[in-house]
Write a structure and sequence with these properties.
Keywords: GTP-binding, Nucleotide-binding, Nucleotidyltransferase, Transferase
Largest sheet: 10 strands, parallel
Protein name: mannose-1-phosphate guanylyltransferase
Number of strands: 26
Number of helices: 7
Structural class: alpha/beta
Family: Belongs to the transferase hexapeptide repeat family.
CATH topology of the largest domain: Spore Coat Polysaccharide Biosynthesis Protein SpsA, Chain A
Pathway: Nucleotide-sugar biosynthesis; GDP-alpha-D-mannose biosynthesis; GDP-alpha-D-mannose from alpha-D-mannose 1-phosphate (GTP route): step 1/1
Pfam families: GMPPB_C, NTP_transferase
Length: 328
């Protein structure tokens, strides 16, 4: 999120409006701390019921419109990419339409809703959901720049901006698409999150390599918070992110995984292809792999093996999980 905030500050954005629904108290507490840290105002718009991808804009209408009449960005929270905001503003001004969307190229467009557009102008012609025949290879990347007038098209009810609003704007020849440079990934699913982490770390290597960890214990791209503690004899990487306040004891092996805030990984544990939730513990000689997901405050005992377990928060795991299953 800090990279996103930096990109917004670079184009002069001083305030962000965040639509929240799930665990709003937790989000607001975190965001208040984050707001002070990054120096940008973060205002929350809380949904009392899920309103889809367009309804929250109607709910936050008063927060999005000011006297300037300038367009505003809308970002999906479950995607990760580079953020070419300056280029998108220039593109939006050049075409004079009502809305701009970012699109990205994919190898298998039949899995997605495809954006059919004029290559020369970027004008969106139509949307085709999971086409059986090839109509294009560009899909919605979840990054939009909208004129305030778009809000007049949205009612305060559960609404999809992709399926209900954008097709109407496209029918009036007022919707344009810009191809996203750089990487992109929808990280709404754990396996995709791990892929997105790899792409993000690859981008850091190219653009801000000083942020990556270095040392004889590091293999490939690794991101370690400055408050985390790493023991002797560890081997970490590739594609690992370690959050604030984590303690990684000696002899630990980590690869292709995310270790969130306040986690303790005890001696000689091995974690690969997994996500370890906030304030969890992985015991000595434990082995956690194959897209195991530990929720918040999960404690895995010593010498336990987890093969793809999905463990809900506040659990203690005393026996091995031999095949992928949900532990409630």
């Amino acid at each position: 999120m800090s990279d996103l905030i930096e990109a917004l500050k670079a184009i002069g954005v001083s305030e962000v409006v965040l639509a929240i629904n799930y665990q709003p108290e937790v989000m607001m507490t975190f965001l208040k701390e984050f707001e002070a840290k990054v120096g940008i105002k973060i205002t929350c718009s809380q949904e009392t019921e899920p309103l889809g991808t367009a309804g929250p804009l109607a709910l936050a209408r008063d927060k999005l419109i000011d006297d300037s009449g300038e367009p505003f960005f809308v970002l999906n929270s479950d995607v990760i990419s580079e953020y070419p905001f300056k280029q998108m503003i220039e593109f939006h001004k050049s075409h004079g339409g009502e809305a701009s969307i970012m699109v990205t190229k994919v190898d298998e467009p039949s899995k997605y809703g495809v954006v059919v557009m004029e290559e020369s102008t970027g004008k969106v012609q139509k949307f085709v959901e999971k086409p059986k025949l090839f109509v294009g290879n560009k899909i919605n990347a979840g990054i939009y720049l909208l004129n305030p007038s778009v809000l007049d098209r949205i009612e305060l009810r559960p609404t999809s901006i992709e399926k209900e609003v954008f097709p109407n704007i496209a029918a009036e020849n007022k919707l344009f698409a810009m191809v996203l440079p750089g990487f992109w990934m929808d990280i709404g699913q754990p396996r995709d999150y791990i892929t997105g982490l790899r792409l993000y770390l690859d981008s850091l290597r190219k653009n801000s390599s000083s942020k990556l960890a270095r040392g004889s214990h590091v293999v490939g791209n690794v991101l370690v918070d400055e408050t985390a503690k790493i023991g002797e004899g560890c081997l970490i990487g590739p594609d690992v992110a370690i959050g604030p306040g984590c303690v990684v004891e000696s002899g630990v092996r980590l690869s292709r995984c995310t270790v969130m805030r306040g986690v303790r990984i005890k001696k000689h544990a091995c974690i690969s292809g997994s996500i370890i939730g906030w304030h969890s513990t992985v015991g000595q000689w434990a082995r956690v792999e194959n897209m195991t997901i530990l929720g918040e405050d999960v404690h895995v005992s010593d010498e336990i093996y987890s093969n793809g377990g999905v463990v809900l928060p506040h659990k203690e795991i005393k026996s091995s999980i031999l095949k992928p299953e949900i532990v409630m």
